[in-house]
Design a protein that fits this description.
Layout (H helix, E strand, L loop, with lengths): L2 H5 L6 H8 L3 H9 L6 E2 L5 E2 L2 H15 L4 H7 L8 H6 L1 H7 L4 H13 L12 H7 L2
Antiparallel strand pairs: 1-2
Helix pairs in contact: 2-8
The protein binds a DNA duplex (9 and 8 nucleotides) through helix 3.
Keywords: DNA-binding, Repressor, Transcription, Transcription regulation
Pfam family, one: MerR_1
GO molecular function, one term: DNA binding
Length: 136
DNA sequence: CTTCTCACA
DNA sequence: TGTGAGGA
């Protein structure tokens, strides 16, 4: 299977995404209401996020921190809704252009973020990882 | 225990 | 955006 479909596979529940992005469940659900992200759902209505969803949330977070509101973010970010495999293939071109982080980088960064999430020290989302997205 | 929706002292 | 209720 291709890289795109792998990045779009619904994998983690909201709890993991909260740790990965340092966003509250409220915020994540709120951004979903505004269609900034479109996570999949399990049979039990539980949200399942893909790597792309996490990346988008990180971008949204950096934009919010820059003072951009929902309306502004909707414009800045492509009004995409890559759900079907066809849509994924069609947006492949623009997808590649948008992507600046390699799989290796992203996986390493998110893994660290997840492990570093124990109480005590500050998250690196506000440091190293955020720099990638704040440059956008 | 985790997540979901809805609503607001 | 936070938070609690009430259910799955």
């Amino acid at each position: 299977m291709g890289d795109e479909i792998r990045r779009n596979m619904a994998l983690f529940p909201i709890g993991i995404v909260m740790k990965l992005t340092d966003l509250t469940a409220r915020q994540i659900r709120y951004y979903e209401q505004h269609e900034l992200i479109v996570p999949a759902r399990t049979a039990g209505n539980q949200r399942l996020f893909s790597f792309n969803d996490v990346e988008r949330l990180l971008e949204i977070k950096s934009l919010i921190e820059k003072g951009v509101n929902i309306a502004g973010i909707k414009q800045v970010m492509n009004p995409l809704n890559m759900e079907s495999e066809e849509a994924t293939v069609m947006s492949e071109q623009s997808e590649v252009k948008r992507r600046e982080l390699s799989d290796a980088q992203l996986h390493r960064l998110l893994k660290q973020q997840l492990l570093e999430k124990r109480p005590g020290k500050a998250s690196m989302i506000q440091g190293q990882l955020s720099r990638f997205y704040n440059k956008h």
